[in-house]
Structure formats: structure tokens, C-alpha cells
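User: Last request for today: this protein with 2-acetamido-2-deoxy-beta-D-glucopyranose, please.
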Amino acid sequence: MERHIQVLLNRLSCASITIATMTLLLLFIQTPQTCIPPNSPPKPHLKFPKSSCEFSHRELQPLEKKNKRLWSTKDWQKKVSSYTQFFFSLRDLDLLNNRTRVLCVSAGAGHEVMALSEMGVKDVTGVELVDSPPLVRRADPHNLPFFDGVFDMAFSGHFEEALIPSRFVAEMERTVRPGGVCVLAVGECSEEEVWEIAGLFRKSRFVGAMNVTLIGLKMTRIIMRIRIPP
Ligand SMILES: *[C@@H]1O[C@H](CO)[C@@H](O)[C@H](O)[C@H]1NC(C)=O
Ligand SMILES: *[C@@H]1O[C@H](CO)[C@@H](O)[C@H](O)[C@H]1NC(C)=O
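Assistant: Here's the final one, the structure of the complex with 2-acetamido-2-deoxy-beta-D-glucopyranose:
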């Protein structure tokens, strides 16, 4: 009788070890599925993805708080609304709508990304040497981590900070599809300077230049359209 119980107990503990092992294995296997892989699609989520493994809850909290604080400042809101006006002018030219896939190069802290998203543009990607999640991811404007022709529009308000202007422009042109547009906002320039900048675009034709006020600065908006190969 006692021996019988011993055998039963042994079996039970065997079973519970098996269950524990399987649970651990399952946990081990399943955890990565709930994570956002580091190379997930470059969509700007206005709300930070809650399930990302890259940020523990301890880190997530200050980031959300920091963004909330930053985004509620007068300066932030003024800049975003200035960019919104700027992009509405592109919409009025039929260059932008809700389905336009837009890349913002050297997007800084992401004012333009937020402006576009709030306007209803669904697919906006912002890149900068230093990332500002969730609006802007890290990428070198001289070596963009995107395939050829995946965007309808590339925009930059920080072209003048480019280390190698020709390379910066070439990467914008490469990632925009034929027929798509590249838009620069640069410090106000003369006609000659506009031609100089437009001349850097090897695969595009000049659409137009116009003096505008953007984030309180006098700037010139230059629009180029990627040529469609014959
Ligand atoms: C996007 O769609 C909304 C309504 O569906 C419209 O109000 C808004 O102006 C559109 N934005 C653009 C950029 O076309
Ligand atoms: C923009 O303003 C500058 C300086 O006033 C002027 O030289 C240039 O021609 C203007 N550009 C356009 C496109 O109106």
C-alpha cells in the first residue's frame, strides 16, 4: 500500500515538473511574439506601442510623460500649426492627400510628422540622426534605410544642415517613386540659389519655388518632381 502511494507521488511530481517545463518553454517561445521587432514598419504611432519590449514600463512612463509635456508647450503647438499650414498649401496644389506616403527627412523632434498625422495623412515616416519616439526614428539622411520608390513625397525643412547636400538630395530622390515629389523648405533664397539647389536633383524636374513663412522664418519652398523614365 505504502509503495503504491510512493509510485503515485513520484508520478505526480514527474507530471508537475513536465508541466512547469512546458509552461516555461511556452513563455519563452511566446514572449517575442508580443514584442515589436526593431525593424517593424516605420509607421509613426502617435501613441507609443504598449507592447514594445524595447522599453520597460519604467522607461515607458517617463517617455510618455516627457512627450506629453513637450507636445503641450506653446512653442511645439505653434510650430506644428505652422507646418500644418505649409502642408495644406501642398494639398491645395494636389501634391498631398490622406493616402500620400510621406517621408520627412531630418525631421528633428517631429513637428512636421505630427502636423501631417493630425491632418489625416495615414502613412508618415520621420527620420533623424537622433530618434524621438514615437514620431521620429533614427536614420542617416545620407543613407536612408528604405527601398527605392517607396514614398510619394519626401520633405525636408533641414536640408541646409546636410553634410553632403548632393547625397542628401540623391537619397530623397531614390526613395520617392517616379512621378512623386521632393519638397524642400530652405532659408529664403535668391533665384540663383534656387537654381543651385534644384541642380542637385539629378532625377527630377523643377516644379516651382515660392517664398513662404514657416515656423516664423522666411523660407523658400522648392518643389521637384521625379521624372518618369520613358
Ligand atoms: C483627410 O481626410 C479628412 C476627412 O476624411 C479631411 O478633413 C482632411 O482634410 C484630409 N486631409 C488631407 C491632407 O487631405
Ligand atoms: C524670395 O525672396 C528673395 C529675397 O527677397 C528674392 O530674391 C526671391 O526672388 C524670392 N523668390 C521667389 C520665388 O519669389
